[in-house]
Write a structure and sequence with these properties.
globular, six-stranded parallel sheet, 31% helix, alpha/beta
């Protein structure tokens, strides 16, 4: 089989990691890389790989376009990407907008929209339960050091006041309301809302905790509640301890997870798929 041609949108730490993988792996072929500041790419990549205008992304003949930049990319270009290739949305918080989600589901008619599981442990199991209608509740709790959050509005103010030894719950409620306030931090929760499609962004609950003592880890807890059997509810709770540098938004292990998702994504036809 010919290598899968990858277009990468975003050249931060994760984008650089995925770019190097596409250049080095035999099963991948780098089609293009776009960055908000294209001059930042010139000292790292050959000119033939540099895409300066996303409206021209189809000219590079990608099989899969991977966004690792910002949710606004999906809002602006997601439907266009899907018209030329499969699309893996690395910032699925963009899908918390019902308008954006509906537009991309409509656009995913000849190519597939792929949502990486990221730090969501058990994503496939959650999807299976949602398919059967046996998923009754899902909560995702993320705990990080205050410096690892990039927040907006009241959450930014609240997080800036966290100090000492006390952890603070910044948010606890539906994931849809959280995504616009923490678009770079809660992609795991957005992926959970896509996997748990019978609950969606309004039914899946998210909790964000700022802990000043947690300097080297990101902790993600997933609580699944299933059907009642003989008066007792089926439940699963997992805790993922992800090593992370101080101030890092993305945990170390998530990089490898994204690469695995990129390798898996594509070729499954129309619709929305986890990867």
């Amino acid at each position: 089989m010919a290598p899968k041609r990858i277009g990468i949108v975003g050249y931060g730490h994760l984008g650089q990691y995925l770019t190097q993988a596409a250049l080095q792996r035999d099963d991948l072929d780098l089609a293009f890389v776009w960055n908000r500041t294209s001059t930042a790419l010139e000292s790292h990549l050959e000119n033939r790989y540099i895409c300066r205008d996303l409206d021209e992304c189809g000219e590079y003949s990608p099989d899969l376009i991977v966004e690792v930049a910002h949710p606004v990319i999906t809002e602006k270009y997601g439907a266009q990407f899907l018209s030329v290739a499969d699309y893996m949305v690395g910032s699925p918080t963009a899908l918390a907008s019902q308008t954006v989600e509906e537009a991309l589901r409509v656009a995913a008619t000849s190519h597939g929209l792929y949502v990486p599981a990221g730090a969501l442990w058990g994503a496939e199991d959650i999807l299976k339960m949602a398919d059967r209608g046996t998923l009754k509740a899902l909560k995702v709790t993320m705990t990080k050091h205050p410096s690892s959050f990039k927040l907006k509005g009241d959450l930014e103010v609240k997080n800036a006041q966290v100090c000492g030894n006390e952890s603070v719950i910044l948010y606890d409620g539906p994931v849809r309301g959280l995504c616009p306030l923490a678009p770079n931090n809660v992609n795991t929760m957005a992926a959970a809302a896509i996997a748990a499609h019978n609950l969606g962004f309004d039914g899946v609950q998210g909790s964000l905790i700022s802990n000043p003592l947690l300097t080297d880890w990101h902790i993600v807890e997933v609580e699944v509640t299933g059907p009642e059997i003989a008066g007792k509810n089926f439940s699963v709770k997992t805790t993922r301890n992800n090593p992370a540098d101080p101030g890092a938004v993305t945990g170390t292990a998530t990089y490898a997870s994204f690469l695995s998702s990129m390798v898996r994504a594509g070729g499954r036809g129309a619709g929305v798929h986890l990867c």
